[in-house]
Each structure stands twice: as C-alpha cells, then as structure tokens.
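Recall the central idea of this unit: under ordinary conditions, the amino acid sequence of a chain determines the structure it adopts. In this exercise we apply that idea directly, starting from the sequence alone.
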Amino acid sequence: MKKMLLFSLIALLGISCGDPALEPFDPGAGGGGGGTVPTPVMPATDHWAALADSCTNVLVTNFLDKSTGTFWSTPNDIEHSSAYIYWQQAHALDVLLYAAERVREKDAARAALYLGYADRWYRNYANNYNRTHRGEGTYGGFFNDWTDDMAWVCLALIRITEVSGDAKYQETAREVFDRYIWTRKLTTAKGTGLPWTNHPEDQTNMNACTNAPSCLVAAKLYEAYKEASYLETAKLLCAFVIANMPDGERVEEPPLTYTQGTFGEACRRLYHITGEDAYMTKAGTVLKYAFTSNRCNDSATGCLRHEGTDMDQSLFKAILIPYAVNYVLDEKADNRTAQTIREKLLVNAKQLDRHLDRKQYPRMYCDYFWGSTFGSGTASMGAQVSGASLMEGVARLGE
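Accordingly, the structure predicted from this sequence is:
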C-alpha cells in the first residue's frame, strides 16, 4: 500500500439545509432511460486515491479475518463480539470491491487479492450465524430469519459478480431471493411487500429497511437475467415503499441515511430499466434529502450527522455513499441535484480528511462522526467501513 499523501486543507464552505421541492411521482411518465444501467467511471486524483488506499488498508489490516474473508466488529476481534455480524459483512466487503475496481488497472495484484478475500467470504457464508438451511445447497448457507439481512448479502453477492465476472455469486443471490426472500411476500392494506422477519410477531412490520434493498435486488436480478418477473417485483416493492413514505422526501421516519441511499439507487436503476422519468426524479429527491436536510446533517460542520455507535448505526453512511456517487456520475441525473450531492460529498470528505490522525497509521481509525477525530477506546468496524466507503466514493468522483 502506498502511504498517505499529506496535502494542505482547503477551507470548508458552509452549506444550507434547504428543503427540496416535492415532486409528484408518476411512473407512467416516459423519458430517456432504457437498457442496461451504466457502470460509473472510476477516475481518481492522487490525494483522494491515497486517502482511499489508506482508509481501506486500515480496514483490511485491523478488521479483516484473512483466513475467512469475513470482518470483525473490533480490531482483531479484541472484544469477541463478531459472532453475529452478518448483514454488516455486506457493506464491509463492498469497500474492498470498490477498491478492486479502482486499482485493478494499476495494481492488478491488489485487486486480485481483494477478490480472493471476497471468495473466502462467500465460502464462509459471510459469517452467517444461522445454520438451519445449510443442507439445502450453497444458497442455504445465506438463509436468515431477517429478510433485510438476506437482501443486503444478496446485493454484495451480485457486486462480487459485477466486479469479478464470475456468475456463481450472482446465481447464489438469485436462489436466496427466489427461495427465501420473495416467498415471504404479503399483501395487506399497505400494499404488497416483505416483512422484516419470518417471525409471527413481525408479519405486519413491513419496513423500508427491508423493502428498499429487496427492491434493488430484484432490479439487479432483472438486469442480469431479463426475466419480467423480477422487474414486476422491483416495481411492486418500489410502489410499496413510496405508498408508505411519510412524505415525498423521507423514505422512513426517522430518516436514516442508509435507507435514503438504498431506495435512491433502486429508483435510479428502475429509471434506466424502464425509461420512466419519475423513477430518476424520486432517486434525486431522496438522495438530496440525505445530504441537505437538517434531520440527516450536522449544522455546525455541514457533514452527515452522528447516527449512533452500535454496529448497525455506524454502518449507515457506508451504504448511502456509493449510491450517492452512482447518482452523481450518472449522465441522466438532474444536473443541479447531482452538483449539490457532489459538493456535500466533498464537504464530508474534507471533514474526515481533517480529522484523520496520520500519526496512528495503520491504526488511523475513522470516528463515528467525521467532524471529530477518533480518540481513546475501541475502534469500530462500522465506523471504519463508513469512512473508507466515503474515501473510495470520493476517489471515484475524480476531484
């Protein structure tokens, strides 16, 4: 790994917390999409590429069990708290996959190393603690009571195929979705959607954090296999999320960055599949809200707020960032919305850059909040994944 480059900091600009105008959702409106979703380009300047290298290397050095390809919740699992880290694995692995894409032309060996870890991650079922369905085949190893956990892992499996070209991971995601996720669908007064778990008490808990990633999985499966049923499923789940949003901008209450980001990406992909402008409008609206609303941002620094210290909460920003970058790099995105999100991403990146303690490298940990420096205590895999995701994402912007 190349060492971190030191650059002088640019003074941060303040940002406003204006409310985006509400746009009606009309999935029947035609537009300029259609076809396969474009793959964003991966340019990177030296400064952000070096920061991405360093933050990702901190993740790999301190939180990756290289023998299994899975991730610990604390450095070298010093707190022995990693047994139930499952859905979180998807987002930690995402960082390595984006890094592999970014470096593969200049450093093919490192890209191959990261993909090797991804294959070990796959063979160890992403650290899934639920072993009840392993006798049903490879896909059975990824079964879980929590529907959203399986959806997140399916997204990671599809990403491994997108980066590696090996279809086996995507095929497993397809089996998991067909056998274990979509079979749980329910139709209620709220519409047709998916419950949070398969537990009887959760049958009416059909939340956005389950239906948004499942919508994205269905859209990606349609892109891969061109089977109409997946597109219909994606549309159905998209309509369910929209029908149950508290307003036109917030995917759920309280608004959380990861759900805003996931649903934005699902809508962006549906736009490119269908050509219907309303999907891209909705994508821009919910993504912009995550970066401009005072519900999601810290007014003093202008960067995304501290969402909590537990392993789930600390990962939320890691999910938003790559999907926000995809929107910014999409030529079909609204120019003003994309520019706003780009500026906010840079505000966040400059804050994190300013608060990284280079003297501690390779234990240069990211804090839960990018407006502060990690101090004493035990570092968090979730916080490191979020910070590394931000740097990998900004490296893709070519700033």
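The chain is about 50% helix and 5% strand.
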